[in-house]
Amino acid sequence: MRHHRGLAVVLTLGESAGEVECTLFFATSQLKLSPAPLVSALMVFLPIATNARAAGEARALTELSLEELSNIEVTSVSRREERLADAAAAIAVVTGEDLRRSGATSVPEALRLVPGLHVAQVTSNIWAISSRGFSSASSAKLLVLSDTRSIYTPLFSGVFWDVQDLLLEDVDRIEVIRGPGASLWGANAVNGVINVTTRSAKETQGGYFEGGGGNEERAFGAVRYGGRLGEEAYFRVFAKGFDRAAMFNPDGTSNDKWKLGHFGFRTDWAPAASDKITFQGDAYAGDIGQIQPSVTVNGRPGPTGKLVAGVAGGNVLARWTHVFEGSADVQLRLYYDGTHRDDPTYVDNLDTFDADFQHRFRLPLQQEVVWGLNYRSTYDRFRGKGLIGLAPPDSQDNLVSGFVQDQIALADWLKLTLGTKLEHNDFSGFEIQPTARIAWNPAREQSLWAAVSRAVRVPTRLERDVDIAASDPAQNPVVKLLGSRAYGSEVLVAYELGYRWQLGQALFLDLAAYYNDYHGLDSLELDAPFVDPQSGQTVVPIVNKNLTDGVTKGGEASLTLRPDRSWRLVGNYTYVLISLKPHGRDLNGGLATEGFTPRNQVGLQSFLDLPAHFQLDAFFRYASSLPATRTLPAGQDVPAYATLDLHLSWRGWKGLELSLVGRSLLQDHHREFSGGSEVQRSVYARIAGRL
User: Fold this and answer.
1) Which pLDDT score, from 0 to 100, does residue 518 have?
2) CA triplet 369, 131, 183: central angle to 5 degrees?
3) Vertex 186: Cα angle to 182 and 190 (nearest 5)
4) Does 477 sit behind a cis peptide bond, omega within 30 degrees of 0 on the bond before it?
5) CA 640, CA 451: separation in Å to the nearest integer?
6) How many helices (H) and strands (E) does the chain have?
7) How many other CB atoms are found less than 10 A from the CB of residue 674?
8) E strand or H helix at 462, and its extent?
9) How far apart are CA 541 and CA 651, in angstroms?
10) Residue 636: Cβ-neighbour burial (10 angstroms; 0-12, 13-18, 19+)
11) Per-residue DSSP letter, 43
């Protein structure tokens, strides 16, 4: 079975091949954080008299009208700026102010604010994040971008969330598309696109500091300074770190503590009114604890003792944008990204180089065209520590792609968008990913949109190159999990419909419905035995094949209310129904995927500005149960749960902010995903300031 907590594979074979169990668990790790005595500091600062300077700062999110909120510019849907209310896709935005008031300390925690996403904490450092089904800790069908730099790993089809550690103070917004975005962003943007955009160096001038701690967030801190290099040239540098405690585990084994250090820089220069140049980079290092090995094979010795993965990495990115007279512009972006992971069961080093070009211009008959080219090269070096290997261990893989999109204004109130992505990669060959979208505005306060799209998830190194003995390697025959060059892409054809309505200054309604048709989903299957010419053994191979089809359907609803200028309420509801049909033996238990996503989710958010510069924010979440299946061990079912987070802050003295955050306050601990630890009640205090 594929246990969706990263990349986990459990194979149970019958008497013909012997009883064999093999688990691959490619996910992230954890560490524990030491409590810091900042609650007393909070109580010391609260009586300090407020200062009028704070009133001159940027307006709080609750002070924005609903019209201003719906007019937020987004770029992820069409690679150009457009109003969120007009975008022909199910898109949500988490603003920088949302991040601050949520009390989130990481991007996965912040994504809990997004309607339609399933965000479940598996261990201290592992999250199962999904859009429209297929929940797993690998986030296999989500493309995640940081300032348009892909952080999707080709090793196991997903994201190492444990090293995506951003200074949230510098994040401008997080745009989340629920549904395919492959026509612009390429393969793996199947069920959604998450695009994190940071603020320019010009917007982060001066000094900033933050620090705090609690019973789970044991200690964290950050400093940042921004300055001016010359005429229209700005920079910032930052450093941050944290130490997070292990989570509650019923069996008493809590080794998923997590600590990480991170520093980075950014420069922005406008040598002319028509040109902008950005150069940025960052690096990190840390230790990530695990509650179980990444790879285990029944009957074969594996890593023992405390399991800790050492991680390190860094990246640099350069972007040049030139605006021509009229509405045309070009953009060139280059980046290099290097990652290192020393896991108890393997060592992996990955280098990525990416070059991207984009050109936007207008044509007659009210057409706007965006097209671009992309080249990406990855060089991966993988070394197993006894149980797992890849053949070959080193691999250089290339991707070449191009896209074109034409938005045609058929009338002032009707727009048609046609586009496609064409690409060739070394995993699955040539891929085409088209889309057609139409947006109708019967009135400025209302919009109706529909879309049909095709997207693919390409194979990974594990699916193509894995080489692991799932039984005693000295036996004859021997069962092996082997990669397959014949394994192809998983294909989605998606049908979407959406509606938005802004009723004056009091209500904003956003609805979306979808029907997703999947073909060629992953399935582990027995292949024909063969004799290994080197060892002389008979090998019973188990390989990935595209032998499962499926359908997901559902909808998302979000309602924003403004009862008062100082109070904003947001209510979300998500429904998803998954139906999979294996056409093979389905040894990895892919059918169990139906049970890893809650059918119903409810979210309620309250942002309230109080007198004397206090703010009180509340976040309620409910998720229906994840039933135990034949592929789960006893006790690993996930009952329905409801929980509440609270955030109290005071911002009244020379840019100083004091806050107290309580998480999962309705119970001592609860499980959110199968096979992991349990989220426990926690509290932390935080102090932050701007100089």
Assistant:
1) 97
2) 20
3) 45
4) yes
5) 33
6) 6, 41
7) 26
8) helix 461-465
9) 62
10) middle
11) H
406/362 Cα distance (integer angstroms):
9
CA 139 and chain centroid, separation: 7
- CA atoms within a 13 Å half-sphere pointing along the CA-CB vector of 683: 9
Residue closest to 370 by CA, chosen among 357, 383, 379, 361 = 361
Specify the DSSP class assigned to residue 485.
Answer: T
Tell me the CB-side half-sphere exposure of residue 157, using CA atoms within 13 A: 25
Dmax (CA) for the chain in angstroms is 82
> What per-residue confidence (pLDDT) applies to 132?
94
Bond before 108 cis per omega within 30 degrees: no
What pLDDT, on a 0 to 100 scale, did the predictor assign at position 628?
A: 57
- C-alpha dihedral over 428, 595, 258, 139, to 10 degrees? 30
Place of tokens 């585990």: 249
Nearest to 521 by CA among 427, 589, 425: 589
To which residue do tokens 């211009």 refer? 361
Nearest Cα neighbor of 290 from 309, 275, 273 is: 309
> The tokens of 546 are what?
């595209």
304 contacts 344 by C-beta, under 8 angstroms: no
- Inter-CA distances, 444 with 112, 241, 447, Å: 30, 46, 7
Half-sphere exposure of 18 (CA within 13 A, CB side): 17
Contacts of 23 (CB under 8 A, 6+ apart): 3, 8, 9, 10, 295, 296, 297
Please give the pLDDT value at position 86. Answer: 83
Q: What is the 3-state secondary structure (H, E, C) of 50-61?
A: CCHHHHHCCCCH
* Tokens 């013909």 belong to residue: 16
What is the length of the chain? 691
Q: What whole-number distance in Å separates Cα of residue 518 and Cα of residue 141?
A: 12
| H-only helix segments in 342-475 | 461-465
Compute the C-alpha angle 62/221/347, nearest 5°: 115
DSSP secondary structure letter of residue 162: G
CA 450 – CA 510 distance, rounded (Å): 14
Q: In sequence order, which ranges of 91-190 are alpha helices (DSSP H)?
A: 96-102, 107-110, 182-185
Q: 205 with 683: CB under 8 angstroms? A: no
What pLDDT is stored for residue 457 in this prediction?
A: 95
Q: What is the pLDDT of residue 298?
A: 78
- The distance from CA 429 to its chain's CA centroid, rounded to whole angstroms, is 26
Rounded CA-CA distance 468/307 in Å is 21
| Contact between residue 571 and residue 599 where contact means Cβ atoms under 8 Å apart | no
Going through 344-413 in order, the beta strands assigned E by DSSP cover 346-363, 367-384, 389-390, 394-411
Residue 55 token pair:
């009133």
Structure tokens given for 577: 């129904």
For residue 272, give every residue at least 6 positions away whose Cβ sits within 8 Å of its Cβ, in sequence order, or none.
Answer: none
Q: What number of other Cβ atoms are within 10 A of residue 463's Cβ?
A: 22
Residue 504: is it exposed, middle or buried by C-beta count within 10 angstroms (0-12/13-18/19+)? exposed
The model's pTM is 0.90
Amino acid making up residue 515:
Y
Residue 484 φ then ψ, to 5°:
-135, 120
Q: How far apart are CA 182 and CA 418, in angstroms?
A: 13
State the amino acid at position 124 in one-letter form.
S
- Gap between the Cα atoms of 291 and 294, Å rounded: 9
Tokens of 190: 């199947």
* Residue pair 315/280 in contact by the 8 Å Cβ criterion: no
With a cut of 70, list the residues of the chain below it in pLDDT: 1-70, 628-636
C-alpha 175: how far from its chain's center? 11
Task: Please check whether residue 248 is in contact with residue 257, taking contact to mean a CB–CB distance below 8 angstroms.
Answer: no
Task: Give CA–CA dist 633/637, Å, rounded.
Answer: 8
Q: Is 393 within 8 Å of 381 (Cβ atoms)?
A: yes
> HSE on the CB side for 524, CA within 13 Å?
25
